[in-house]
Amino acid sequence: MKPLPDDVQTPKKSLEEFSDVTKRVLGHLSDIVSERVKVRDYIILSSSMAGTSKFARPINNNLFIFDSLVFDDQYKIFLSIISKIKSNKTITEEEHKIINSVVYTIQQSMGVGMDFLCNPNSSRKHVGNRFEELIRLIVTELGIKNNKIVLKIPYPSEDGEKLYSCETDIVLSPHGSVKSGAKSIEENEIVVSLKTSSKDRMGKIFLDKLLMQKFAEHSVKVVGIFLNDVQRKETKQISYTFVSGLFMVYTKFLTELEGVYFVDPPPITKQVPYNQHIFSFSKFIAEDIWKLLSS
To answer: Is the separation of the CB atoms in 188 and 175 below 8 Å?
Structure first.
């Protein structure tokens, strides 16, 4: 078995691998956490070892499962819910909560594990990579074909024609394989932007949609999936990073995305008008993904 710092930074190839490392992190937290500070719905964990203090990212106390045995039970239920969705069955409100809670606990376990055990400069990219892997594996578990593509968009330059690489995090397809490629976006497929936070990234999703539509010469379905928009402020406070006004300006004057989804939605997104455009992650995989793929 790999040392835990290496395990959280190693790419995951199955949901089972994610479950296993999550349980390892949860079991390790009780040994290293020296203080828990509650700030609104969040908890900030800190660890003091060998005279050095480390602080973890804020954890939503309503979503995060601290007990590894409870997580294991909820994870098994989560898999049964995924099977239920795959069979085109409606899920309950409680099952929606389990989806968001399990996904949140897995991803935040990766993040908190890296906060305490790894170099912060190298771990930032790893946290984002784990989130992309996790969402792709869930989509694959649902039986939906997906792939990462890079759209190559030609443009003139002083040296002749060059190609701009418009990268996608994942493309979802209703077909037997993803038909989009370097030169086109298939009209029935969904381009998904996967980010742990919308901070400094929201604008690019809207601009990429406009760019892809201009190049493809037809409408392109684009959604954004985020983990959360909250960060630690100093050592014992939090701040929300979702820029609500800018989101509505982009939506009204640039283009409208097919949907934006959070595993841990910022409080303001539950209010009008944001709740008409921003939803929970569970809604995406239980309802909206199927509607978008069939439209």
So the answer is: yes
Instruction: Tell me whether residue 231 is exposed, middle or buried, using C-beta atoms within 10 angstroms of its C-beta: 0 to 12, 13 to 18, 19 or more.
Output: middle
- Better-scored residue on pLDDT, 227 or 121: 227
Cα dist. 263→32, 138, 165, 179, 233 in Å?
A: 26, 13, 29, 28, 21
Each domain of the chain, given as residue ranges in start order, spans 4-141, 145-294
Instruction: State the burial class of residue 277 (Cβ atoms within 10 Å of its Cβ: 0-12, 13-18, 19+).
Output: middle
- The pTM assigned to this predicted structure is 0.96
Q: What is the mean pLDDT of the chain?
A: 95
Asked if residues 139 and 208 have their Cβ atoms less than 8 Å apart, the reply is no
Are 102 and 72 in contact by the 8 Å Cβ rule? The answer is no
Length of the chain: 295
Cβ distance 55 to 115 under 8 Å? yes
Could you tell me how far CA 259 lies from the centroid of its own chain?
Answer: 14
Q: Which residues contact 291 (CB under 8 A, 6 or more apart)?
A: none
Instruction: With cut-offs at 50, 70 and 90, classify the pLDDT of residue 120.
Output: confident
Alpha carbon 237 to its chain centroid, in Å, reads 23
CB atoms under 10 Å from CB of 280, counted, come to: 19
Q: Which residues of 173-198 are buried (b: 16+ CB within 10 A; e: fewer)?
A: bbeeebbbeeeebbebbbbbbbbbbb
CA dist 280 and 222 (Å) reads 16
